[in-house]
Amino acid sequence: MANLASVSKPRKFSSRNSSLGDKIFDISIYAILTILMIVTLYPFINTLAVSFNTATDSMKGGIHLLPRQFSLENYKFVFADNSVYNATMISVLRSVIGTIVTVFASAMVAYTISRPEYVLRKFVTIAFIITMYINGGLIPNFLLIRDLGLLDSFWVYILPGVIGVFNLIIIRSFIEQLPDSILESARIDGAGDFRTFINIVLPLCLPVLATVALFSTVSQWNSWFDVFLYNSSNEHLSTLQYELQKILQNSNTTSSAESGFANSSADSNKVSPLSIRATMTIVASVPMIIIYPFLQKYFVKGMTVGGVKG
């Protein structure tokens, strides 16, 4: 009995140490995550505060979480030109259409190169991967777009980026992890490759497809340089990002006649490049912030299961 009592005491002491160590570890993790959350959220909240603050007061600095002098002049200045609304519609259209086309096309190619019966799959995969490291350059790309007749066209936003190699590899890796028995049973039932892809593969690939859709949507929404290169002369095909870029450039001028967006010199003095830059950031970020929560669960699962294999 004495031996049992002596043995039980150290075990009880060890359990206490273990419990205390676990609590310290949990507290440390929560503290680190809290710090990371603050570091991540503070720049956005600060930018939001600056966008709702008067421009002259923002230039003094010292704004942190809340606007010091609340004002909507920055947003009135940004949305004063009617071209912003048309540009927003073009951005929405290119994001939606571009995402759908990119996801579907990338999934089809990924399914093809994931099939072991396709004898050229390694060659095709290597050919795609090479394009990630070797590019023809800006001038050859422009000449190619011109020769294809895509200048001053909406489809210049969609067709050149139909297949994203990184997205292709992620989807292929996900498909390769699907049980072969499911695909074989579909073939036994008489389903062809396209029907198997539509009815079997696509529903099983929803997590990774949602991940790719999020990547593609963000890329399409934030893109403005292709508008500058290919459609700068066509105002009807201008996007929101490009219009915001022009507004920022015009806000740097001191003359209201040069800006083209202010109605008077008094109006031009109500904004500054700092306030306009903050307002542009918020306007461009809000749609992505709204979309992300709906795709978050698919995004995490898709990145975990569909990770790139060596």
What does this structure look like?
The protein is mostly helical and 310 residues long. It folds into two domains: 2-51; 73-305, MetI-like (MetI-like fold). Helices cover 72% and strands 0% of the residues. It contains 15 helices and no strands. It has helices at residues 2-51, 55-58, 73-78, 83-114, 121-133, 138-147, 165-176, 180-188, 193-204, 206-222, 225-230, 240-251, 256-259, 265-268, 273-305. Helix 7 (165-176) packs antiparallel against helix 10 and helix 12 runs antiparallel to helix 15 (273-305). The chain is flat and about 70 Å long. Residues 4-8, 254-268 and 306-310 have low confidence and may be disordered.
- State the end-to-end distance: 59 Å
Task: Tell me what the CATH architecture of the largest domain is.
Answer: Orthogonal Bundle
User: What is the mean predicted local confidence, pLDDT?
Assistant: 80
CATH superfamily of the largest domain: MetI-like
The coarse silhouette is: flat
Question: Any key phrases for this structure?
Answer:
MetI-like fold; disordered C terminus; 0% strand; 15 helices; 2 domains; mainly alpha; flat; 310 residues
